[in-house]
Amino acid sequence: MHLYVNTTSPFVRLVRLAIEEKGLSDRVTTQIVDPWADPKDFLAANPAGRVPTLITDEGLAIAEAHLILRYLDDLAGPSIFPPDGLAETLSIAAPALGATEAATAVIIGRKSSDRFDSDMVGSKRFRTMAEGLTRLDARPPRDFADRPDIANFAAVTAVDYITFRFTDRDWLADLPNLRAWRERQKGRPSVEKTMPFV
Fold first, then answer.
1. Which of the four, 32, 46, 79, 181, has the lowest number of CB atoms within 10 Å?
2. What predicted TM-score, i.e. pTM, was given to this entire model?
3. For the domain bounded by 86-193, which CATH number is listed?
4. Which Pfam families match (predicted)?
Protein backbone atom coordinates (compact mmCIF):
# COMPACT_ATOMS: atom_id res chain seq x y z
CA MET A 1 0.00 0.00 0.00
CA HIS A 2 1.07 3.58 -0.59
CA LEU A 3 0.08 6.52 1.60
CA TYR A 4 0.32 10.17 0.59
CA VAL A 5 1.11 12.27 3.68
CA ASN A 6 2.53 15.49 4.94
CA THR A 7 4.33 15.96 8.22
CA THR A 8 1.84 18.25 9.95
CA SER A 9 -1.63 16.98 8.99
CA PRO A 10 -3.57 15.70 12.00
CA PHE A 11 -5.72 13.60 9.66
CA VAL A 12 -2.60 11.88 8.36
CA ARG A 13 -1.64 11.24 11.97
CA LEU A 14 -4.92 9.47 12.71
CA VAL A 15 -4.19 7.07 9.87
CA ARG A 16 -0.54 6.62 10.81
CA LEU A 17 -1.53 5.83 14.41
CA ALA A 18 -3.79 3.06 13.11
CA ILE A 19 -1.06 1.71 10.84
CA GLU A 20 1.39 1.58 13.75
CA GLU A 21 -1.03 0.11 16.28
CA LYS A 22 -2.22 -2.55 13.83
CA GLY A 23 1.31 -3.59 12.89
CA LEU A 24 0.87 -2.62 9.24
CA SER A 25 3.85 -0.29 8.88
CA ASP A 26 5.86 -2.83 6.88
CA ARG A 27 3.02 -3.02 4.34
CA VAL A 28 2.70 0.74 3.75
CA THR A 29 5.11 3.06 1.96
CA THR A 30 4.67 6.79 2.52
CA GLN A 31 5.22 9.72 0.21
CA ILE A 32 5.41 13.25 1.59
CA VAL A 33 3.56 15.73 -0.63
CA ASP A 34 2.69 19.41 -0.46
CA PRO A 35 -1.09 19.35 -1.00
CA TRP A 36 -1.04 23.04 -1.96
CA ALA A 37 1.40 22.36 -4.82
CA ASP A 38 -1.00 19.93 -6.55
CA PRO A 39 1.50 17.24 -7.64
CA LYS A 40 0.12 15.40 -10.67
CA ASP A 41 0.38 11.86 -9.29
CA PHE A 42 -1.27 12.96 -6.06
CA LEU A 43 -4.14 14.71 -7.86
CA ALA A 44 -4.60 11.65 -10.04
CA ALA A 45 -5.16 9.66 -6.85
CA ASN A 46 -7.29 12.29 -5.12
CA PRO A 47 -8.73 15.19 -7.15
CA ALA A 48 -9.57 17.02 -3.91
CA GLY A 49 -5.84 17.29 -3.23
CA ARG A 50 -6.16 16.32 0.42
CA VAL A 51 -4.00 14.14 2.60
CA PRO A 52 -4.13 11.40 3.64
CA THR A 53 -4.80 9.37 0.51
CA LEU A 54 -4.17 5.63 0.51
CA ILE A 55 -3.53 3.51 -2.58
CA THR A 56 -4.44 -0.10 -1.83
CA ASP A 57 -2.49 -3.11 -3.04
CA GLU A 58 -5.15 -3.44 -5.75
CA GLY A 59 -4.45 0.11 -6.94
CA LEU A 60 -7.63 1.64 -5.54
CA ALA A 61 -7.42 5.16 -4.09
CA ILE A 62 -9.13 5.83 -0.77
CA ALA A 63 -9.25 9.44 0.38
CA GLU A 64 -10.38 10.96 3.69
CA ALA A 65 -9.00 9.78 7.02
CA HIS A 66 -12.20 8.24 8.36
CA LEU A 67 -12.68 6.11 5.23
CA ILE A 68 -9.07 4.98 5.36
CA LEU A 69 -9.48 4.09 9.04
CA ARG A 70 -12.52 2.00 8.16
CA TYR A 71 -10.50 0.15 5.52
CA LEU A 72 -7.54 -0.44 7.83
CA ASP A 73 -9.88 -1.74 10.50
CA ASP A 74 -10.93 -4.45 8.08
CA LEU A 75 -7.32 -5.41 7.32
CA ALA A 76 -6.02 -5.98 10.84
CA GLY A 77 -6.91 -5.82 14.50
CA PRO A 78 -7.31 -4.57 17.03
CA SER A 79 -10.39 -2.67 15.93
CA ILE A 80 -10.23 1.02 16.73
CA PHE A 81 -14.04 0.99 16.82
CA PRO A 82 -14.47 -1.59 19.62
CA PRO A 83 -17.97 -3.03 20.00
CA ASP A 84 -17.58 -2.95 23.78
CA GLY A 85 -18.53 0.60 24.74
CA LEU A 86 -18.61 1.88 21.15
CA ALA A 87 -21.08 4.70 21.77
CA GLU A 88 -19.06 6.01 24.70
CA THR A 89 -15.82 5.76 22.71
CA LEU A 90 -17.33 7.70 19.81
CA SER A 91 -18.78 10.33 22.13
CA ILE A 92 -15.31 10.96 23.59
CA ALA A 93 -13.74 11.05 20.13
CA ALA A 94 -16.28 13.53 18.72
CA PRO A 95 -15.18 16.75 20.52
CA ALA A 96 -11.53 15.86 19.89
CA LEU A 97 -12.18 15.48 16.18
CA GLY A 98 -14.22 18.70 16.20
CA ALA A 99 -11.35 20.56 17.87
CA THR A 100 -8.93 19.21 15.28
CA GLU A 101 -11.21 20.21 12.39
CA ALA A 102 -11.48 23.70 13.90
CA ALA A 103 -7.71 24.01 14.30
CA THR A 104 -7.05 23.07 10.68
CA ALA A 105 -9.75 25.50 9.57
CA VAL A 106 -7.88 28.30 11.31
CA ILE A 107 -4.58 27.37 9.66
CA ILE A 108 -6.25 27.29 6.24
CA GLY A 109 -8.30 30.42 6.96
CA ARG A 110 -5.14 32.37 7.73
CA LYS A 111 -4.04 31.77 4.13
CA SER A 112 -6.94 33.89 2.92
CA SER A 113 -7.14 36.62 5.57
CA ASP A 114 -4.76 38.24 8.04
CA ARG A 115 -7.75 38.89 10.30
CA PHE A 116 -9.16 35.36 10.23
CA ASP A 117 -8.43 34.65 13.91
CA SER A 118 -10.61 37.51 15.12
CA ASP A 119 -13.43 37.42 12.59
CA MET A 120 -16.71 35.60 13.26
CA VAL A 121 -15.62 32.28 11.76
CA GLY A 122 -12.15 32.31 13.31
CA SER A 123 -13.53 33.18 16.75
CA LYS A 124 -15.95 30.27 16.57
CA ARG A 125 -13.13 27.90 15.57
CA PHE A 126 -11.01 28.97 18.57
CA ARG A 127 -14.01 28.47 20.84
CA THR A 128 -14.51 24.97 19.39
CA MET A 129 -10.87 24.12 20.03
CA ALA A 130 -11.00 25.28 23.66
CA GLU A 131 -14.33 23.60 24.35
CA GLY A 132 -13.21 20.35 22.76
CA LEU A 133 -10.17 20.20 25.03
CA THR A 134 -12.29 21.10 28.04
CA ARG A 135 -14.64 18.20 27.32
CA LEU A 136 -11.69 15.84 26.99
CA ASP A 137 -10.48 17.06 30.38
CA ALA A 138 -13.89 16.24 31.86
CA ARG A 139 -13.91 12.79 30.24
CA PRO A 140 -10.50 11.63 29.02
CA PRO A 141 -10.26 8.56 26.82
CA ARG A 142 -8.66 5.29 27.84
CA ASP A 143 -4.88 5.19 27.83
CA PHE A 144 -3.29 3.62 24.75
CA ALA A 145 -1.88 0.94 27.05
CA ASP A 146 -5.42 -0.09 28.03
CA ARG A 147 -6.78 -0.20 24.48
CA PRO A 148 -5.90 1.79 21.36
CA ASP A 149 -9.11 3.16 19.85
CA ILE A 150 -10.54 6.09 17.93
CA ALA A 151 -11.04 8.11 21.14
CA ASN A 152 -7.39 8.09 22.22
CA PHE A 153 -6.25 8.50 18.59
CA ALA A 154 -8.46 11.59 18.29
CA ALA A 155 -7.50 13.00 21.69
CA VAL A 156 -3.73 12.74 21.29
CA THR A 157 -4.02 14.13 17.76
CA ALA A 158 -6.09 17.11 18.90
CA VAL A 159 -3.87 17.95 21.89
CA ASP A 160 -0.63 17.65 19.97
CA TYR A 161 -1.82 19.45 16.84
CA ILE A 162 -3.30 22.41 18.75
CA THR A 163 -0.25 22.82 20.98
CA PHE A 164 2.04 22.43 17.93
CA ARG A 165 0.24 25.01 15.79
CA PHE A 166 -0.88 27.56 18.40
CA THR A 167 2.06 28.19 20.70
CA ASP A 168 0.88 31.57 21.99
CA ARG A 169 -0.93 30.00 24.95
CA ASP A 170 -0.73 27.07 27.33
CA TRP A 171 -3.79 25.11 26.20
CA LEU A 172 -3.53 22.56 29.02
CA ALA A 173 -2.83 24.98 31.88
CA ASP A 174 -6.33 24.67 33.33
CA LEU A 175 -6.97 21.10 32.18
CA PRO A 176 -5.21 18.89 34.75
CA ASN A 177 -6.93 15.62 33.78
CA LEU A 178 -6.12 16.01 30.11
CA ARG A 179 -2.57 17.13 30.88
CA ALA A 180 -2.05 14.04 33.07
CA TRP A 181 -3.62 11.81 30.42
CA ARG A 182 -1.29 13.17 27.73
CA GLU A 183 1.71 12.71 30.01
CA ARG A 184 0.83 9.03 30.44
CA GLN A 185 0.90 8.47 26.68
CA LYS A 186 4.54 9.52 26.42
CA GLY A 187 6.81 6.76 25.24
CA ARG A 188 4.09 4.90 23.34
CA PRO A 189 5.87 4.01 20.07
CA SER A 190 2.92 4.90 17.82
CA VAL A 191 2.47 8.26 19.54
CA GLU A 192 6.13 9.19 19.40
CA LYS A 193 6.65 8.05 15.81
CA THR A 194 3.69 10.06 14.47
CA MET A 195 4.31 13.42 16.15
CA PRO A 196 3.74 16.40 13.81
CA PHE A 197 6.79 18.35 12.66
CA VAL A 198 7.78 20.96 10.11
1. 32
2. 0.96
3. 1.20.1050.10
4. GST_C_2, GST_N_2
DSSP symbol at 111: T
For position 117, what pLDDT does the model report? Answer: 86
Residue 55 DSSP label: E
Considering the domain delimited by 2-75, tell me its CATH architecture: 3-Layer(aba) Sandwich (3.40)
Residue 167's pLDDT is 97
| Residue pair 51/6 in contact by the 8 Å Cβ criterion | yes
Query: How would you classify the pairing of strands 61-63 and 53-55?
Result: antiparallel
CB neighbours (10 Å) of residue 43? Answer: 15
Structural element, H or E, at residue 10: helix 10-21
In the chain, which residues have pLDDT < 50?
Answer: none
* CA-based end-to-end distance of the chain: 25
